[in-house]
Design a protein that fits this description.
By secondary structure, this protein is an alpha/beta fold. The protein contains seven helices and 14 strands. The chain has helices spanning about 35-45, 60-65, 65-75, 95-100, 180-190, 210-215, 215-225, and strands spanning about 1-10, 15-20, 25-30, 50-55, 75-80, 115, 120-125, 130-135, 145, 155-160, 165, 165-170, 195-200, 205. Strand 1 and strand 2 form a beta hairpin. InterPro entries: MBL_Glyoxalase_II (IPR051453), Metallo-B-lactamas (IPR001279), RibonucZ/Hydroxyglut_hydro (IPR036866).
């Protein structure tokens, strides 16, 4: 398995490229602000051919370059329907002050081919299977993507802005809700094995076990999940 990532633009949102191996087809997760140049470098270095762009949620720091990447490579974008409108109007996901600061004449459009994600769906792309989990709370349409474990690697979760090392996504922007994100953490993160690798939307990678032991927000979500061990 080949997973390459880099923080994009002034928001430092992590963009990931995922492929079975070098020289194969790949998927791109969350191409954010100014991601195109670094993304092209990764694709060229590993001789990869994109077949899809996957979007964990519609905030601008994660979808800024979705349309140009899809257009240049003639590939579809996948996003949850609750966040689809943010592809063409990302300002709806921001506070009024931030919207006024960011959008000085900028316009965004949907890619030509947009496909909608569903909870529990299994995407079969680039010779891989990725499980989609709907995880609202940061936005209404937030999702995570999971690569199930193999003999070579443990489970891998691309968590977007649901779960970070030591923290979780903010819930004070339009579409955010704190009790809802706690329920998403309880339902979609706490049941996962401790060795599950978490590749977040910002910051360093972590594991479910580390976050279960140290992240205060997962501790708060644990009562919602009920017992996870024992009989």
């Amino acid at each position: 398995m080949l997973i390459a990532g880099f923080p994009a633009g002034s928001f430092q949102a992590n963009c990931y490229v995922v492929a079975p191996a070098a020289g194969e087809e790949c998927v791109i997760v969350d191409p954010g602000q100014n991601a195109v140049g670094d993304l092209d470098d990764v694709l060229r270095e590993h001789r990869l051919k994109p077949v899809a762009v996957l979007v964990t949620h519609g905030h601008i720091d994660h979808m800024w370059s979705v349309a140009p990447v899809c257009g240049a490579r003639d590939v579809p974008a996948w996003i949850h329907p609750e966040d689809r409108e943010l592809l063409s109007d990302p300002g709806k996901g921001l506070s009024l002050t931030t919207r006024q600061q960011l959008f000085g004449g900028l316009t965004f459009t949907e890619p030509d081919d947009v496909r909608e994600l569903a909870d529990g769906e299994v995407l079969r792309l680039a010779g891989m299977e990725l499980v989609v989990d709907h995880t609202p709370g940061h936005t209404r349409g937030s999702v995570t993507f999971r690569l199930p474990r193999t003999d070579e690697i443990p489970d891998v979760m691309f968590s977007g802005d649901l779960l970070f090392a030591g923290s979780i996504g903010r819930t004070d922007l339009p579409g955010g809700d704190y009790p809802t994100i706690l329920r998403s953490l309880a339902a979609k993160c706490l049941p996962l094995p401790d060795d599950t690798v978490v590749l977040p939307g910002h910051g360093p990678q972590t594991t479910i076990g580390t976050e279960r032991a140290t992240n205060p927000y997962l501790a708060e979500a644990a009562p919602l999940a009920g017992p996870t061990r024992g009989i």
